[in-house]
Amino acid sequence: MLRVEAAMGIEPPQKLQWRYYRNSCRDAERYVTSQVEFYWKRDKSLAPKLIRMLYADCFVTGCDASILLDGPYSEKTAPQSAGFLGFPMVVIDKIKQILEERCPGVVSCADILNFAARDAAHLAGGPSYPVLAGRRDGMSSSAASLHRGLAIQFHKTGKPDPSMDSSFLAQMREQCPPNSKNQVYLDPDSGSSYSFSKSFYSRVLNHRAILGIDQQIAANNDSSQIAQQYDGSFEDFRKRFALSMSRMGNIKVLTGNQGEIRKNCRVVNRK
C-alpha cells in the first residue's frame, strides 16, 4: 500500500468510509496500486490523464464513474473528453476485470477511478492521500453535461493574451504556426516526464502560462498570492493538492441503494 503522506486531518464525510473494503474485498486497493504501477512504468502520461478523467467525472454529475460509460451520446463523446480516455480506460478495464475475478460485484468503478488517480499521482511524485470509499456507480451519461464553452483564443478575438511574455509568445508561435496540428505541453518545464511539480505556478507568475484562463491566476490579488505561496513552497502545494483531491472525490457521491456496482465499467448492469 502507498504511504499516506498528507491530508490526514480530513474529516470523513458521513457517506464514505476509510478502508471500506477491508471485509468485503480486503486487498482491493493493493490490486489497484499494482496495476497502476505496472501501466505507469510503460507510459508516464497515465498520471495526468487519470487525474483529468477523475476531474471530468466528479465536476459534471458527481463522482459516479459516468465518464466511463460507453454510448453514442455519453460523456466520452464530448469534445472535452478527447485526449485522456483511451489509455486510462484500458487500465480501468483491467483493474475492474481483476477485482471482479476476486471480489465479484463488490468494488465500484467510481472507487476504482479515485484509487487509481491517487496512486498514479503519487508515482509521478505527488503526495499520497486517504481515499475514502463506498461510492456506487451512476446509471447514465450525457455528453451535453460536459459543454462548458471554453474559448481557444483570448476572449474569442483570435489574438493571444496581451499579458503573455513576449519571448514566450514568439516561442509558441514558432512551435505552433497557423493551421498546425502540433501539440505543446501545458507545463513545458516538466514536458514528457509528466512529473509532479510546482513549476506551473512559476510560469503563471512570469506570464508564461499556455492558457489564458491559467494566466488569470496572476491577475487576481488573492489567487496571485496563492501562486506565490505554492511557487515558494512545494510542500504547501503537495498538502493542498492532497486535500483538494480528497474533497473532490466526495462530490455528489452515490451510496447505499443509489446507483449500482457495475460489472463492467463501460456499461450499466442488465436488469
From TrEMBL:
<feature type="binding site">
    <location>
        <position position="189"/>
    </location>
    <ligand>
        <name>Ca(2+) 2</name>
    </ligand>
</feature>
<keyword id="KW-0479">Metal-binding</keyword>
<feature type="site" description="Transition state stabilizer">
    <location>
        <position position="52"/>
    </location>
</feature>
<dbReference type="Pfam" id="PF00141">
    <property type="entry name" value="peroxidase"/>
</dbReference>
<protein>
    <recommendedName>
        <fullName>peroxidase</fullName>
        <ecNumber>1.11.1.7</ecNumber>
    </recommendedName>
</protein>
<keyword id="KW-0106">Calcium</keyword>
<feature type="disulfide bond">
    <location>
        <begin position="109"/>
        <end position="265"/>
    </location>
</feature>
<keyword id="KW-0408">Iron</keyword>
<feature type="binding site">
    <location>
        <position position="66"/>
    </location>
    <ligand>
        <name>Ca(2+) 1</name>
    </ligand>
</feature>
<feature type="binding site">
    <location>
        <position position="64"/>
    </location>
    <ligand>
        <name>Ca(2+) 1</name>
    </ligand>
</feature>
<feature type="binding site">
    <location>
        <position position="62"/>
    </location>
    <ligand>
        <name>Ca(2+) 1</name>
    </ligand>
</feature>
<feature type="disulfide bond">
    <location>
        <begin position="25"/>
        <end position="103"/>
    </location>
</feature>
<feature type="binding site">
    <location>
        <position position="75"/>
    </location>
    <ligand>
        <name>Ca(2+) 1</name>
    </ligand>
</feature>
<feature type="domain" description="Plant heme peroxidase family profile">
    <location>
        <begin position="15"/>
        <end position="269"/>
    </location>
</feature>
<dbReference type="GO" id="GO:0140825">
    <property type="term" value="F:lactoperoxidase activity"/>
</dbReference>
<keyword id="KW-0349">Heme</keyword>
<feature type="binding site">
    <location>
        <position position="57"/>
    </location>
    <ligand>
        <name>Ca(2+) 1</name>
    </ligand>
</feature>
<comment type="similarity">
    <text>Belongs to the peroxidase family.</text>
</comment>
<dbReference type="GO" id="GO:0046872">
    <property type="term" value="F:metal ion binding"/>
</dbReference>
<feature type="disulfide bond">
    <location>
        <begin position="58"/>
        <end position="63"/>
    </location>
</feature>
<keyword id="KW-0575">Peroxidase</keyword>
<keyword id="KW-1015">Disulfide bond</keyword>
<dbReference type="InterPro" id="IPR000823">
    <property type="entry name" value="Peroxidase_pln"/>
</dbReference>
<dbReference type="InterPro" id="IPR010255">
    <property type="entry name" value="Haem_peroxidase_sf"/>
</dbReference>
<keyword id="KW-0560">Oxidoreductase</keyword>
<feature type="binding site">
    <location>
        <position position="60"/>
    </location>
    <ligand>
        <name>Ca(2+) 1</name>
    </ligand>
</feature>
<dbReference type="InterPro" id="IPR002016">
    <property type="entry name" value="Haem_peroxidase"/>
</dbReference>
